[in-house]
């Protein structure tokens, strides 16, 4: 059965939003979404980083999936997408332990850039976990990609 991008993203987000329990600071909250894409059959590291790949940050907002940020992997396969005032867009009463967002990478990738992911179609999706903060900016890192 073929799944659409929206249904795949929605399913992953529902699983993580359901676990919402941890309090966030009141007021402005910015988020840096970080991760690394490697040229492996799963997209997970360790492995050679994949440069120049578009990455979207998709979040569950008021029951809909919304792309809140976009970036491109650097020469090492790393990405960092800054989303200002994310708490104004995700109204969960200031409480969630799992961030209701996923990193989304479209497949296939260019065979010259990553042969391991050049013959597969679909998406790579990864949830995020909070990983520290600096002032009002939280860091969120990928948990690990899954293919849909």
Give an overview in words.
This protein is mainly β. Helix content is 9%, strand content 41%. It has 1 helix and 8 strands. It has one helix spanning 5-17; strands at residues 30-36, 54-61, 64-72, 78-83, 99-107, 122-134, 137-142, 146-147. Strands 1, 2, 3, 4, 5, 6, 7 and 8 form an 8-stranded mixed sheet that branches. A hairpin with a 2-residue loop joins strand 6 and strand 7. The termini are close together.
List the helices and strands and how they pair.
Blueprint: H1 5-17, E1 30-36, E2 54-61, E3 64-72, E4 78-83, E5 99-107, E6 122-134, E7 137-142, E8 146-147
Parallel strand pairs: 1-7
Antiparallel strand pairs: 1-4, 2-3, 2-5, 5-6, 6-7, 6-8
Order of helices and strands: HEEEEEEEE
Main sheet record = 8 strands, mixed
Envelope shape: globular
Q: Whole-Å distance between the termini?
A: 11 Å
Unreliable runs, pLDDT <50, ≥5 residues?
14-25, 92-96
Estimate the mean pLDDT confidence. Answer: 82
Which radius of gyration do the C-alpha atoms yield? 15 Å
User: Helix segment count?
Assistant: 1
Q: Report the strand count.
A: 8
Structural class: mainly beta
Percent in strands:
35-45%
Fraction of helical residues:
under 10%
Looking at this protein, list some descriptive labels.
148 residues; mainly beta; 8 strands; 9% helix
């Amino acid at each position: 059965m073929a799944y659409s991008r929206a249904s795949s993203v929605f399913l992953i987000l529902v699983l993580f939003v359901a676990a919402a329990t941890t309090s966030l600071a009141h007021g402005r909250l910015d988020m840096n979404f970080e991760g690394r894409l490697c040229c492996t059959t799963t997209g997970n590291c360790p492995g050679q980083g994949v440069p120049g790949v578009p990455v979207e940050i998709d979040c569950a907002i008021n029951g809909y999936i919304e792309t809140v940020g976009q970036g491109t992997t650097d020469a090492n396969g790393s990405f960092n997408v800054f989303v200002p005032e994310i708490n104004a867009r995700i109204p969960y009463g200031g409480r969630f332990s799992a961030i209701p967002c996923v990193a989304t990478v479209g497949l296939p990738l260019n065979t010259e850039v990553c042969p391991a992911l050049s013959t597969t179609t679909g998406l790579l999706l990864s949830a995020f976990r909070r990983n520290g903060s600096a002032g009002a900016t939280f860091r969120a890192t990928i948990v690990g990609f899954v293919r849909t």
